[in-house]
Specification:
By secondary structure, this protein is of the alpha/beta class. It has 2 domains: about 160 residues, 3-Layer(aba) Sandwich (Alpha/beta knot), CATH 3.40.1280; about 60 residues. It contains 10 helices and 7 strands. It has a 7-stranded parallel beta sheet with strand order 3-2-1-6-4-7-5. Strand 1, helix 1 and strand 2 form a beta-alpha-beta unit. Helix 5 packs across helix 7. The N and C termini lie far apart (about 75 Å).
Length: about 250
């Protein structure tokens, strides 16, 4: 059964290869989308090659709705977006994928039914199909090579959908089996290094000593140290001191 998450329907218009339908299903499910509609697939339906390519997203193919024409696929929709590399002279809003999914999320939250049209691999959507859309999604690609594979285009739009409605973490550092070092632990590390470096005569000449110590403290504060890092740096300093004492 489809999930109960409100979302746009992704409509694949006359897809030509089963592999691309499967890739589109996989891309959709990567980003928790599972409302696939297929219009007049060239090689018929069901398609074994689509199933193989979909891998773990085969459920979307089992639940996909099959239509003979674009109007039939859009009959329950109130807002339609069409993906195309060029507006083709039609007077319509042209949106980036990011903005398009912002609009889609707003309209779905307001109770509307939204669909996104994806054209066939060879030539894309026809003008009369684009004319049925309320707005166009245009991907900023290389103008000398603007054609996107069907699966790639679906993936790109699906990702932008997730950015609008999902929890996207933009920066994270996995800590493994440790935690970030506390201020107290970093202060103790600074004290340890200062003491040992003082004994070694590192802070020379004397009139520069305070500035050198300040720079050393600043160094620790700029480094995102974990507790494991701090223990290792303590151990390095202790081992260096032991090595020096053995040498004497």
């Amino acid at each position: 059964m489809p999930t109960d998450q409100p979302q746009p329907a992704f409509v694949l218009v006359r897809p030509q290869m089963g592999e691309n339908i499967g890739a589109a299903a996989r891309a959709m499910w990567n980003f928790t989308l599972d409302r696939m509609r297929i219009v007049a697939p060239r090689d018929g339906w069901p398609n074994e090659k689509a199933v193989v390519m979909a891998s773990g997203a085969g459920r979307l193919l089992d639940e996909a709705q099959i239509y003979g024409t674009v109007p039939e696929a859009l009959q329950d929709c109130t807002y339609v977006l069409a993906t195309t590399a060029r507006p083709r002279g039609l007077t319509k809003p042209v949106l980036s994928p990011e903005r398009a999914m912002q609009v889609a999320a707003e309209k779905i939250a307001a109770g509307e039914k939204v669909a996104v049209l994806f054209g066939p691999e060879r030539a894309g959507l026809e003008n009369d199909e684009i004319a049925r859309a309320n707005a166009i999604i245009s991907v900023p690609v290389n103008p000398d090579f603007a054609s996107l594979n069907l699966g790639q285009c679906v993936l790109l739009v699906a990702y932008e959908w997730m950015r609008q409605v999902g929890e996207v973490t933009h920066d994270v550092t996995p800590l493994g089996k440790t935690d970030w070092a506390t201020g107290l632990e970093i202060d103790a590390l600074g004290d340890h290094f200062e003491e040992r470096l003082e004994e070694a005569g590192f802070f020379f000449p004397e009139h520069k000593a305070e500035s050198m110590k300040m720079n050393l403290r600043n160094l620790w504060s700029r480094m995102p140290l974990t507790q494991v890092d701090v223990r290792m740096l303590h151990g390095i300093m202790r081992q260096m001191v032991r090595w020096k004492e053995r040498g004497e």
